Structure formats: structure tokens, C-alpha cells
Amino acid sequence: MTDQHGQEPTRRDFIYIAAGGAAAVGGALTLWPFIDQMNPAADTLALASIRVDTSPVETGQQITVMWRGGPVFIRRRTQTEIEESLAVDISALPDGLARNENLSDDAPATDENRRFTEDLLIMKGNCTHLGCVPLGEAGDYDGWYCPCHGSHYDTAGRIRRGPAPENLPVPPLRVADEANPAIVVIG
Amino acid sequence: MSGPSTYEPQTGIERWLDSRLPIARLMWDSFVDFPTPRNLNYWWTFGGILAIFLMIQIITGVVLAMHYTADVNMAFDSVQRIRRDVPFGWLIQSMHANGASFFFLAVYIHIFRGMYYGSYKAPREVLWILGVVIYLLMMATGFLGYVLPWGQMSYWGAMVITNLFGALPVVGEGIREWLWGGFSVGNATLTRFYALHFLLPFVIAGVVILHIWALHVPGNNNPTGLTVKTKKDTLPFHPYYTVKDGFAIVVFLMIYAAFVFYMPDALGHADNYIEANPLVTPSHIVPEWYYLPFYAILRAITFDIGPISAQLGGVLAMFGAIAILFVLPWLDTSPVRSMRYRPVARWFFLIFMIVCLCLGWCGANNPDDHVLGTPLKFVNFAQILTLYYFAYFLVILPVLGFTERPKERPASIEAAVLGNKPATAQPAE
Amino acid sequence: MKTLIRNLAILAGTVIGAAFLTAAPAAAAEGEAHEPENHAWTFEGPFGTFERTQLQRGFQVFQEVCASCHALEHITFRNLGEGTGPFTCFPDPNASHEDDGHHAEPLCYDNPNDNPVILQIASAYMIEDGPDDAGDMFERAGTPADNWPSPFANEQQARASNGGAYPPDLSLIVKARAGGADYVRSLLLGYHEAPEGMTVRPGLHYNEYFPGGQIAMAPPLSDGIVTYADDTEATTEQMAEDVVTFLAWASDPHLVERNRTGLMVLIYLFVFAVLLWFAYKQVWSRVEH
Q1: pTM of this prediction?
Q2: Can you tell me the ipTM of this complex?
Q3: Is residue C21 part of a domain?
């Protein structure tokens, strides 16, 4: 489409460029619905946050709830477990960060930054190594132990030994409303 | 594909590829430099439009398949979930459902164009037959797809069509149960229809490639029906027909978009928003509009023909109405391709088109109702129309070839385009 | 150009013809019932939209009148607070009503899970869930993700409670009836004395818009049967319009989004077509044709 005939080259080129540009823009915009349709649908998103009543969980007991297709551990820790966790030297941890979505990314992995209330610990139940579900009240640190590749977590869900790179993450959490502090909204 | 290739690889990579897999050469010779008659009108843009719609249907269809569940208990709800919860699901579902209608609209225009300009005649018989094969596959695909939303019309449409096979003597009953995978339309039917509905479009795409191949051997027919003689009769496909096709495609897409966004249900049926119920038949079962003419032919045979029962006769007439298209190249005995130069045939063709539209009208109405308040019932009207439909192929076209006196035809395509004017400009080559 | 216009006219004619052909049986299927009365809806036409206060009133009518017999299967509580739904925005309950004529800013929630109205509506219903750790089913308060609970456990129970008639699901009713919103509104308002000579069977009611003329549903609406929160007078006409608007939304919650996207797409295609038309003219100006 070079200018062989010499008449009004600028206007002619403009039309071709404009038409070609319009085709490219239209094509790109059309692409979006076909990409976006693979994102989680509205009904899936609606289940992205759940409410859990934590009042039936006794001290020393753990419940596992399903959240976003995976397990979440809710444990009411014993006084011994809490003290054990508080005694840990943060600087010696393999992962010194809290991994708590409710706090800033650089918050240190203190017990206060990990737990929800003093005795209540809520965190995702997939090992940060390759996603297996760790066993409770097991391992060398009285917390969780992942049988797949031998990761040991302590009583605040922090990685202490084994191949897992990070502490078990704490999902977004909040109290449903002031009247019912035992009902926790996850997500 | 016709004539020597004009493709010249420019870079080292192009030369390297060309000596190993000359795909760039194939594309160049087929869609860039392909010599195309210079007088093609807008009716010739429907080939490109159909290619676009095959793409739209396949892409939206694969996307819908990511969300659809082929199970009688979940199919209806899963379509509702697509329309309500899947991001842009409402758009993609509407594009697919209305896309089927516009695909058929385009294919009917494409077929009528071929019939008017004699595009089925030698040397394009194979091209035409491949086209009829595509049309048949489209009808099968459309029918299978209409069952998937599992609404009342889906279910009862499937019931009626599969029961057609039950009309066959001896083997009918067995074939019907074989199609159903049970004793009625059910879950087995739905899952197999889903699998086949997914498969057939790719078969169509394959036959389309053969169709284009068969087109590029003799080249395009044109409104005069004259054979291309010299280079002056043609223009390179690109840019002359790419831009013309492109314009027509966008205009057609505008009409399509008006339906997709503003009248998404205008071409559908309200009953299909009720979940399939094997115990209740809707008061008035009609197929999608694009099957209506054949549905009218099916119902027009209300009498036994010798040993053939009315039911079997209807089925045979319906399939015969499509099958007759396969032999059209040999039924039309006239040596003149374009009806532009066939003063009598063009009138019969016009009547034929009206007959097809009226058959569609009959298909949409209750056979026992009266046509516009006249004493004529739709079923009898359909019988007259069916008679003309077959007579057009079996009597009118064969006889006209011998009796008709064609008008004088121009010497060449170039002469038809330019008349007596001297050619002032030539295409850039 | 002339041939182009002619061709396009034929094309348009074919499309309209096709639409007409499919519309024809719908009219025929109505049998002896009257054609539904044409009504002006806010959601009609390419710029149609839903008015939120009307949806709220319509929801109130549905909840207080229809929901005792009819299901709304495809609607979840959260849907009521999504997009153009009735409670995505609502009047601030804490705003003082003695404002000097100024309307307080309504409260809006993007996420229906946080929307107090949605949570309140949902939690008022008990939903069967389970099994629990003991393997038993239990009841819990509804959450936004739950589907609107059906008044009956199954079709048999619904029929048994309604003299053999099955109250249809309403979440698609506007799309599932030929005549759409006009038909549903006409039906709600179509209860009259039966014409001379017609014997209405026991348990049925004469309705001029219902196919066959006899419907099992008793006249559902009467003046003042609900008290609207926004002080609109609850006439039968008003309630019919409101509830049908709500049901039209329930059938097609993306209607407004669809209309808006359609406008953009058509404008784009039009501009693109004009550009291609000039490009086409340019290209073909090089040759005699």
C-alpha cells in the first residue's frame, strides 16, 4: 500500500491507519470478556468469606473449617502452648515474618502478630512447602507436623524445621460484630 | 493455487521456512494475491461472514463448555449460572445462542446466492457438494446444541426429532433407542449430544478448509457467470476484497450485536426458560426458525403414499428436500450459469425463494389454522409449497435448460464491468 | 452504493421476517386468552434501566405476597445487593427524617456480604444445612450466599398444598412466558367476573389473560395489602407494576449492563464501519468498477 499514485498520500494513509487501529483496539477489547470469564464467578466469590462461631471450641481443641476450597485451622490453645510460643526467640526463626494478612507485610512473627485473640489461633491449614495438610499436636515443637516432607511448626504455626519456607499464613479475619465477638468472619 | 505462485520470500527466515513448510506461500496465494473476479457484488461477502461466524461459535462454545454441566439435574441451572454469575457469561451465552441464528441467516443467503448465479455448475460441483455437507453438519450441530440448555423446547425438540427415526420401517425402534441410550430422551442422550455438539464444529472447520480448497482450484464464480479469461478480468484478493469483505462483516456484525445486546431472546422461545419436564408437553412445539421450512415439509405429508405411511413419507420428504441439493448440479441442464441472463429461470427462482420463506411461515404455525383468515389451512398451503419446492428441482430446472432462450452475454468480465469505457487505471501489482 | 442500500434493506427485511416468524407461534399459542396489555416499563428499550426504589417495593410485594407459594430458585440473597439489585444502595436508616427537604445520601455496598440489609434479609430465614459431626441435618440462619428458600420442599408438596396446582418458580417467569412482563402484569390484574355462560370449576378463578381463562391462583393483590416503606400508595396497579419490575430484574439481572455494553459496541462498530467504508472507497478508486 505504498504511495504509487501520488494523490493525497496523507489523507489516504490516515484512513488505512485509522481502520487498522480500530480493528486492533476492537480486537483487544473483545478479548477481555473471554479472559475475564475464567476468573472466579460471582457465586464462588460469595463463598470467599465465611462466618464461623468459635464459641464451641474448647481449650486444647482444634476445628478445621473449609474456606476457599481448603482447610483453615481454628485452635484454642492451652496456657502451656501460649507460653511456649511467647518464649521463642524471633531472630532464630527460619521465617521471621508474621505472614498475617491483617498486618503489614514486614510485621515480625511474634505470637501477638500471629494469634487472633490470646488463646485463639486461626490460620490456613496447607503446608507452605507443597500444600499438604499438617497434623495437629504433632512434631518436635508441639504444634503441627506435615507428614509429606517433614516440616515442623510450633504452637503459633511458625515453621521451625523442615523444607517449608514460610509460617502458616493467617487469612483476613475480623469479628462479625460487637454483639457476637465469638463469631469470626474469615475472608 | 491457480497459476504460478507469486510469493517471494523476503527474509532468510521466510526462505528457510518456505523450503520446509510453505505455509506463508499458501496463505499468500490463497488470501493475498489470489486472482478474484473484479465484479463480485456484496452477495459474495457472505463467505467471509460465515468464516467469522464459525470462529465466533467455536470460541464462545469452548468458553461455554468451561462452565456448562451436561447432566439432566444440573444443565438448566448451569446455564442460569453462566448467565448470572460467570463474568461476562451473559454476553458469551447470548453471542453463542444468537450466533447460531446469524450463522444460519448468512448460510441461507450464501446458498441462495450460489443458486441464483449458478455457482454449483461445472467446474464447481465438488465445491457445491462440500457446501451442502457443511450445511447438513450445521443443522446437526445446531439441533444438538439446542438440546443442551435442557429447557422445555430443548427436551421436546429432541424428542420430536429423534422420534423421526422411529418412523423408519423395521430398524426404526432400535435406532431410536440407540440414539437415546435409553427408553426416552434422558441423561445418556444429553451427555452424548454434548460430546457430539463439541466435536462437530471441528468437523465443519475441516470441511470448510476443503470447501475453500475446492473454491481456489477453479476460482470464484461471479455475477455474470462468465469464466475468467484474462488477467484483466481479475483483481488480487488483497486489498480489494479483504476491505470489501471487512466492511460487509462489520455491517453484519452490527445487526448481530443489536440482537445480542438488545433482543437476546427475540429469536428463541419463552418455553425454553422452563426446565425440561418429561411429563408436560408445551402447547405448541416449534423448532428454531432456521429449521421451519423443513419442519413444514415434514408435516405436509399427511397421506399414505402406497406402502409408505404418512409418518415415514414426511421424514423422507424432509430429508429429500436437503438431499436433492446434492444433485442440483446435474438437475440444472442450462449451460448458462448466471440467472442474470436467464429471463425465465430468474422468475422461477424468485418464486422458489418466496416458497421457501412461506414454508418457514407454515412451519411456525399450527397446521390446522387458516392462512390469513382464508379457507386455506396451513397444512394444505404447505403441501402446495412442498410440491413447488420439489418441482423446481425435478421439473422446472431440467426442462428450462432446453426451452429457455438465454439473453446475450458480455464477451468477458472486463467488458461487463467497463462497458465501452476504456480502462483508465489498472490495479497496482 | 445503491445496490449496497438495496442489499442491506433486503438483509434487514430477512432478519425482521425471521423474527416475525418466530413471534407468530407465540401469539397463536395463547389460544382464547386475551393479548396482554402493553405497559410502559422503565427497563424497556435500549436505554432501559431499573429504578432501585421500585425494585425495593417490588421485592417487598414478592416477599410479603408471592413468596408464600412461589419459589425464586435462581436468586440468592446476595443477588439482592449486587449491581442493579434492589438493595445495593438503600436509604440511610440513621439519617434524620426531619431534614429540610434534602435527601440523605443513600448507603451503598459493593460487597453484598457486608451489606446490613442483605445480612438482615438472609438471617431472617432458616436454611437446612449439614450433616454436622453427628451426621444430622441442622438449621442455621441464612447467609448472603444461600439461595432464596423455596416455600415447599418439592413439587409434590407444593401441589398438595395448592389444590393440585403447582405455583411456578418466579425467578425466570418474565422470560418464560410469551408476552413477558406485559403478560405477568396483565395476569395479576386480569381477575374479573367470568363471562356469561362460563362455568368456573371449583378451586379455579376466572382470569381473562390466562390460557383457558381459569387459573388456580386466587387474586393475589388487593389495595393496601402491603404497606410500602417509602410511603408510595399501595394500589393494586402500583403493586403489580412494582412486583413485575422486580421479577423482570430477577429474570435478567444484567439487563442494564447489557444495554450499556451494547451501546458502546454499536458505536464502535459504526465508527469502524465508516472507516472501512472510506478505506474501501480509497482502495477501489484505483480501478474501474
Answers
A1: 0.89
A2: 0.92
A3: no
